[in-house]
Amino acid sequence: MSRLANTRISTLDLVPIRDDGNAAQALRNSLSLARHVEKLGFTRFWVAEHHNMDGIASSATAVLLGYLAGGTSSIRVGAGGIMLPNHAPLVIAEQFGTLEALYPGRIDLGLGRAPGADQFTAHALRRDRMGSADDFPRDVEELERLLGPRQPNQRVVAMPGADSNLPIWLLGSSLFSAQLAAAKGLPYAFASHFAPRYVHEAIRLYRENFRPSAVLDKPYVMLGVPLIAADDDEQAEFLATTAFQRILALLRGESLVLRPPVESMRGRWLPHEQDAVGNFFGMAVIGGPEKVRARLEILLEQTQADELIFTCDLYEHASRLRSYEILGELHGA
Length: 333
Prior knowledge:
With 333 residues, this protein is an alpha/beta fold. The chain has one domain: TIM Barrel (Alpha-Beta Barrel). The protein is 43% helix and 15% strand. Strand 3, helix 3 and strand 4 form a beta-alpha-beta unit. It is globular. To bacterial alkanal monooxygenase alpha and beta chains.
């Protein structure tokens, strides 16, 4: 049996807004996609906290997760992730404790240490309580206490939240969170879908330094992977130009709304921009079924990942559904 068939697969939806669409359409599409991959047997469906980005509709992450969990029945739903510097741990404990109370055994809480926004938006989020990524380890510990067993004489209690023992993941695109996840014995998700440069070093650090905990007795690695699967390689390369245009816009500080695919990116980017977009998609899986299968088997052989979580930014919602359908077929083969 292939490595892919023995590896869990999941979805990270960036809830993209089209150039001719709106947030309501993007949110409905997110639920449609969650139901689709649930039927395909995917393990989990995550959305991520982003702010002040006109092409992403997942800013109110906990609210969106309630909508997604309520519209599905078995797939795990969660944050990939909540940017903890933006929030008081008590607020997150209460929000996700509420979700866990409503949908028991189906909620994941992934935590990141970046603000997920520019400095002006970060200030607007925190106002007079300006958090810092340097507070991240302490905030994670506080959140763990709030979600763990209630202690005698505990002055501050998350309700709902206390005694939920909600699964916490640490997310990262550098080496810091890999080391922290190892020290705390937590599952680790590396953001190789947008920062593949440090993936192998981060995995090595995490595994070599992992300390068993009440949560995990051995390391558990999830990798983010950009996916653009189509019925043949040529169609996949065409569809991929939507994702390329989006990252090019990100590099230029332009609108992140999804744009239609184009026949060629030639003339649309400068050489250094093409290199930067190429680096961003360094772990992307783009192609027809056989190319996708081969690429994923190599990736799994190189990383020994326990789970892959896929992003897929395509202009037509039907193309995204088909992309995940092809992945599901390969996974079940």
